[in-house]
Write a structure and sequence with these properties.
The chain is of the alpha+beta class. The protein has one domain: YaeB-like fold (2-Layer Sandwich), CATH 3.30.2310.20. It has a six-stranded mixed β-sheet. 23% of the residues lie in helices and 43% in strands. The N and C termini lie far apart (32 Å).
Amino acid sequence: MHSKRFARDVYITRHARERMTQRAISEAEVVELLETGRAKYKDDSRMWIAKSMPGRDDNLVCAAVVLEDRLIIKTIMHHFVWEA
């Protein structure tokens, strides 16, 4: 998988894949999330990317990611709410 938006290959950790399975989030949804979701940076290399996904009723879907030589997805969440 590759992200055009971040110009990096994407690596999904085992933990993130397990959460995708538990939350019925497909790779296609992850691609859409990465390419079109709202990104909020924690620092220079860590961020959250979240998006309301059509057809899902579990609020925002969010990926916690790290930007290195590739984009590493650490976990996938649902029922996500941005902190104030």
